[in-house]
């Protein structure tokens, strides 16, 4: 069974396929990047877990290249920065403790070294960093990218200051984003979190795309869409890349931590937090479930046209090593 066929088995009917290419349609190139590895115990993530099973998974990141008119080099974006190669750079004791629960962690081969290996200098060749969210295993070392603008979902700067449900202040690596380089997307029109939005926002507009209720056309030419993907933590975003006339790549970040949730083989686990209440790997479980349904619907509606990958998909990672930078996926 192909990846697209196996996904979205819930038969969520829909009639809005992704658009046909425009005249002079622009496409992006995409390449996978190493963002380090961490170990996830099944008992925190998927329904019917094997209580003793833990899997060492990647925290994958992606290089996206958008052709620039009248220039020999493309605009380069990195989606997520993975794990900090120097784990002592996580300043919060609570983060350090959390990392002990995710061992083994491997961080020496990181995004910076992946880019350098392919001949790119992160200190000057990267124009944008899009962060799916600011969890420790996605935020990397922003100081490696002094020339880049950091694009983040609405509410990200707020939670960096104030914490969030399931991500208390003691786990927040305050000051880890260079604020003068950060551009926050506006809240979606029907957001219940408008009070968390940054005072200054990008002028992007949210619009529906295929079955997705809220997406931003980042370059205005339909080649790179940032997708609102709420539930995991405030400001969580995904990306949908147009790589060919009939091919798209969906970067799912942490919309789920195990590919079997998107294929419908597993569900998101709720487990006892040790104090008699249930928790999950997502701050807002009902929104996280709705996001999963949206992604399943996108895959079901568009079939083979959409290849999808989530940050911690060890199976995709091990089967697609030939598509890591300096090689390209598309
Ligand atoms: Zn996360």
Automatic annotation (TrEMBL):
<keyword id="KW-0862">Zinc</keyword>
<feature type="domain" description="Metallo-beta-lactamase">
    <location>
        <begin position="58"/>
        <end position="312"/>
    </location>
</feature>
<dbReference type="InterPro" id="IPR036866">
    <property type="entry name" value="RibonucZ/Hydroxyglut_hydro"/>
</dbReference>
<feature type="region of interest" description="Disordered">
    <location>
        <begin position="1"/>
        <end position="21"/>
    </location>
</feature>
<dbReference type="InterPro" id="IPR001279">
    <property type="entry name" value="Metallo-B-lactamas"/>
</dbReference>
<dbReference type="Pfam" id="PF00753">
    <property type="entry name" value="Lactamase_B"/>
</dbReference>
<protein>
    <submittedName>
        <fullName>Beta-lactamase-like protein</fullName>
    </submittedName>
</protein>
<comment type="similarity">
    <text>Belongs to the metallo-beta-lactamase superfamily.</text>
</comment>
<feature type="compositionally biased region" description="Polar residues">
    <location>
        <begin position="1"/>
        <end position="17"/>
    </location>
</feature>
<dbReference type="InterPro" id="IPR051013">
    <property type="entry name" value="MBL_superfamily_lactonases"/>
</dbReference>
<keyword id="KW-0479">Metal-binding</keyword>
<dbReference type="GO" id="GO:0016787">
    <property type="term" value="F:hydrolase activity"/>
</dbReference>
<dbReference type="GO" id="GO:0046872">
    <property type="term" value="F:metal ion binding"/>
</dbReference>
<keyword id="KW-0378">Hydrolase</keyword>
